[in-house]
Amino acid sequence: MNKILTKNRDLTQKLGFSLLTLMTLLTVIPIIGTVIYIIVQGAPAISWEFITGFPREGMREGGILPAIIGTFYLTLGTAVFSVPLGIAAAIYLSEYASENRLTRLIRLAIINLAGIPSVVYGLFGLGLFVLFLNFGTSILSASMTLSIMTLPVIISTTEEALRAVPQSFRTVSISLGGTRWQTIRRTVLPQALPGIITGVILGLERAAGETAPILFTGAAFFLPRLPHSPFDATMALPYHLFVISTQVPEMPIQIQYGTALVLLVFVLGMNVIATIIRSRARAKRQW
Amino acid sequence: MNKIVIENLTLQYSDGTESLHDISLDIVANATTVLFGPAGGGKSSLLRCLNRLNDLADVESVSGRIILDGENILDPNIDVIALRRKVGMVFARPVVLPFSIRGNLTYGLELAGEKRKSRHDEAIERSLKLAALWDEVHDRLDEPAIALSGGQQQRLCLARSLAQEPEVILLDEPTSGLDPISTAKVENALEELKKLYTVILVPHSVQQAARTSDFAAFFLQGKLIEYAPGTEIFTNPQNQRTEDYVTGRFG
Amino acid sequence: MEKDLNWREYIITRLIKFSGYSAVIFVSLIFFFLLKEGLPTLAEVPLGDLFDLRWYPIESYYGILPLITGSLLVTIGAGLIAVPFGIGTAIYLAEIAPRWVRNLLKPLVELLGGLPSVVLGFLGILILSPTLRVTLNLPTGLTALSGSLLLGGIAIPTVVSIAEDALDAVPKSYRDAALAIGATRWQTIWRVTLPAARSGVLTAVMLGVGRSIGETMTVMMVTGNAPVLATGLADLFSPVRTMTATIAAEMGEVANASTHYHVLFFIGMVLFLISMTVNVAASAVVFRQKKRAERVLS
């Protein structure tokens, strides 16, 4: 082969690889930068009072406890509805459904649910839960709205975890006189559990960080107390960050960064836990 | 005495891969019946009909009857769960469940709702002894079953199906992945088992078929070619194709 | 006891099957409620007014064209960023980077997908917009461009994740064959691997862009929210307002069942239909389910 041609090809490859590496760096560095920047800027705001206190002076002083607790309640509420439903739906798809039209329709519906804009979930929650079912602007309405939004994530990750369990386990269990449900409960589910937990956490992580779906279904601008029942509205970290960074004039910058940091820790903490569970389970797995 | 009577069994998978054509066969109790022949002949399919494991596969159609103790097990209304407890199965690859040795052995009993520890211990000892595994594992029953060697795992699988006191044992090439010593152990165990149970074996070689069979059925492309006592079929086959296969002219 | 078992089994199976259909039920419910609250718009606002250039609800101007073009503009801008960077990163991770780099960076990129959009909007207000205003010498930094840059960032993890999976799924033998006849790795990537993974890469792009069109908080916070008709990419440097931001910003203040309320639901309906179109199209590209029944042949 012609030497110059070879040289050209090598040069092209070198340039191409460099370009792609550069693009990757430009993608990755801002991510790391964002996280580090918020940590650095927000850390000074973090204090015992900030975490456990109520907002004072039009939220310009004091803590963000109601928002933290609110996000905790919303996440919990979301889990209550979406986890059993999502896991059951995944079991259906993995263990019961045969490949027919109905199953294809279900899969299409799940893909669609995953793609619906979050603010449209907010509209839906307003229409169904707040107004039609008369739950009002409440933790209940917001949690149910977030649940439906979280459902596709939980279903698809759980289904993947179930399908990863070797088919032979099922065959053996059935051959020993197990019913389908016994087989699922005693053999398939325990083996898929780490994968399911990971998926659930990743779904809830998304719910915890969302603002748009709770805007008109359960989020409160400011509450001087903690919610008493599921029918109360609540403050929430993401909405609070939105409020103090756009709606409150002369908001001390430190409180804004502090709130962003707490939200980040909440959400990324869940992400890290999920990752740890996944890698531990992979290392321990017997198949 | 006939334990199982198979009458005109015909089976078709939906993807058309493998099927059984008009099989009629009487399987004798307390003996080893061997189903042998080249791959794709329908031996495994027949085996999987006997405990209705084919329910899990895409079966297009099945006709004929399989009478076990006077009951047609192909009848959609029979209690399939009870049938599978009565007809145990061991697969070609040893599939131990991801539990302890004990957990594997008591799995079937627990499925059946048997919770008494004394019954569990009884079943564990009896089945492990029958499968010739007791001496090797009785002092480490709570270790994960996956830690056993391949041969031990396969005998554990055998013990696991024996634990719920079946009446018929189906074995689908149970020694195909094992070394000669492990194979001998399994074969010896089978020799003991047939005194108690009806054993139906798909062997992994003609030699194994000859060694283990009381009765032998030769399958070719979904058809039953010849069925006779083992002593006859391997020494004096009636059918030309059986003879060609047994003597190694094709395989 | 046997009976007991059968009963439980029956009930559980029913519950599982019912849950299996839940996704279909919810999508239908969502669509139903959007129609129920959105369709009255057509009776209340003449079609000509609806597709007019002026959005000023206080004086009953419900022209949604500026909102649609606002969404389009921001999304196109986001796509121009997310597609090259997303695919470039995916190729780097799948084809060039050593395994450990990939295992480190891919979760990191996916982490970006987990960042709450409100945090990105927050940083957009405090850092990105002022920077853009100064460097580009604009009257305000809250522009479509700020929205596009952040939305691009939000779409990148989706693009990278799906495209990388698709590239990774290309059998190694394809690459080996190309390398064996003397192609360089670079040529192999462009002529063999990328074409082989094209349906997955296409899906990645569609879903990434689909996600940006539905993104709400970030764009509401950084695009300036001026409902002005966008006519070209030059408008990237001025404030715009998207469909999603309009709903989010105004829904809290409208009276139930007012015309304004209905129009906002109507916009939600349009968004729903857009996302459905994108997702149906994307899944049509990749719908290849393996046959499920496993049967060990004799």
Please provide a written account of the structure:
The complex is a heterotrimer of chains A (287), B (251) and C (298). By secondary structure, chain A is mostly helical. Helices cover 76% and strands 1% of the residues of chain A. Chain A has helices spanning 3-42, 48-52, 65-96, 101-115, 118-132, 139-163, 167-175, 180-209, 212-215, 237-246, 253-284, and strands at 55-56, 61-62. Chain A has a two-stranded antiparallel ribbon with strand order 1-2. The mean pLDDT of chain A is 91. The radius of gyration of chain B is 18 Å and the shape is globular. By secondary structure, chain B is an alpha/beta fold. The mean pLDDT of chain B is 90. In chain B, strand 7 (168-172), helix 7 and strand 8 form a beta-alpha-beta unit. In chain B, the strands form two sheets. Chain B has a six-stranded mixed β-sheet with strand order 6-7-8-3-9-10, with helices on both faces. In chain B, strands 2-1-4-5 form a four-stranded antiparallel β-sheet, with helices on one face. Chain B starts with a strand and ends in a 5-residue tail after the last helix. Chain C has 14 helices and two strands; from the N terminus they run ααααββαααααααααα. The longest helix of chain C is centred in the N-terminal third of the chain and has 32 residues, at 65-96. Chain C is globular, with a radius of gyration of 24 Å. Chains A and C meet through helix 1, helix 3, helix 4, helix 5 and helix 6 of A and helix 1, helix 2, helix 5, helix 6 and helix 7 of C.
Quick tags:
heterotrimer; A: 287 residues; MetI-like fold; globular; C: 298 residues; 14 helices; 2 strands; 73% helix; disordered C terminus
* Radius of gyration of chain C, in angstroms, nearest whole number: 24 Å
Percent helix range of chain C: over 70%
Quaternary organisation: heterotrimer
Shape-level CATH architecture of chain C? Orthogonal Bundle
Number of strands of chain A: 2
Determine the number of helices of chain C (DSSP H or I, runs of at least 4 residues): 14
Residue stretches of chain C low in confidence (pLDDT < 50, at least 5 long) are 287-298
> CATH fold name of chain A, please?
MetI-like fold
Briefly note the CATH topology name of chain C: MetI-like fold
State the end-to-end CA separation of chain C.
37 Å
Number of domains of chain A: 1
CATH class of chain A: Mainly Alpha
- Overall geometry of chain A comes to globular
Q: What's the domain count of chain C?
A: 1
Identify the biggest protein-protein contact and residues per side: A-C, 94 and 91 residues
The low-confidence parts of chain A are: none
In CATH terms, the superfamily of chain C is: MetI-like
> Main β-sheet of chain C: number of strands, strand sense, barrel status?
2 strands, antiparallel
